[in-house]
Amino acid sequence: MTQGLNGDADHTSDNLNDALRTLTSELSRADAKASIVLAMTGVGLGFVATQGSRHQGAAVLAVGAAGAMCLVIAIVVLLIIVRPVHIDTVTAEGWSRWATLDPQALRDHMRADLRAERVSFLSRSVMIKFRRLRLGINLILAGVSLLFAATVLSLLL
After folding, report:
1. Is the Cβ–Cβ distance between 60 and 157 less than 8 Å?
2. Sequence spans of domains, the chain
3. Is residue 51 within 8 Å of 154, Cβ to Cβ?
4. Which of 103, 109, 117, 141 could hold 93 in an S-S bridge, CB 3.0 to 4.6 Å?
5. Mind listing the pLDDT tens digit for each residue in 9-26?
6. What is the pLDDT of residue 36?
7. Crossing angle between the packed helical segments 12-51 and 58-82, to the nearest 10 degrees
8. Could you give the 3-state DSSP secondary structure of residue 52?
9. Which residues contact 122 (CB under 8 A, 6 or more apart)?
10. 49, 1 in Cβ contact below 8 A?
11. What count of other Cβ atoms lies within 10 Å of the Cβ of residue 53?
């Protein structure tokens, strides 16, 4: 493994700081992406709901309903992404735990270098958010595909 120009230097502190900045940025990115996709999906579902017609064949209605259901499930997944995370304050590291500490306990707590714990917690959070974002987008793609198929069916039948 290459250690760079200063092979003997310990870069743990710099690496932890960089990791925290990167993870904080990635969490913001995931929330922003989920919010944008959520808004677009909600508008799309609203459009589908207003354009639906009961005068279609059973096959068209079934495929369209399956597509709309995919969009609804995607909206639920995206809402879960942007929902604030409940953090167990006993084991958590961050603002939710700080809120439970008295001033002296907070000072004692702040003396410890807990960046590694923060990196571990944030990296798991980022991974979960992006996995759910990918699931939400896959559901949207499935829903749009099914709605397109329903449109084609309605033109053919």
Report:
1. yes
2. 17-156
3. no
4. 117
5. 788 889 999 999 999 999
6. 94
7. 150
8. coil
9. 20, 23, 24, 27
10. no
11. 9
From CA 117, how far away is CA 93, in angstroms rounded? 7
90, HSE (Cβ side, Cα atoms, 13 Å)? 0
Put residue 4 in one of left, alpha, beta given phi > 0 → left and psi -120 to 50 → alpha. left
Q: In this structure, are residues 78 and 39 in contact, taking their beta carbons and an 8 Å threshold?
A: no
User: CA-to-CA distance for 34 and 133, rounded, in angstroms?
Assistant: 6
Residue 128 has pLDDT above 90, yes or no: yes
Residue 122 corresponds to which tokens in the numbers above? 């944030």
Each residue's pLDDT tens digit, 52-85: 777 888 999 999 999 999 999 999 999 999 887 7
Position 5 scores a pLDDT of 57
Tokens 């949207």 -> residue: 140
pTM for the predicted model, two decimal places:
0.79
Non-local (6+) Cβ contacts of 11 within 8 A are 4
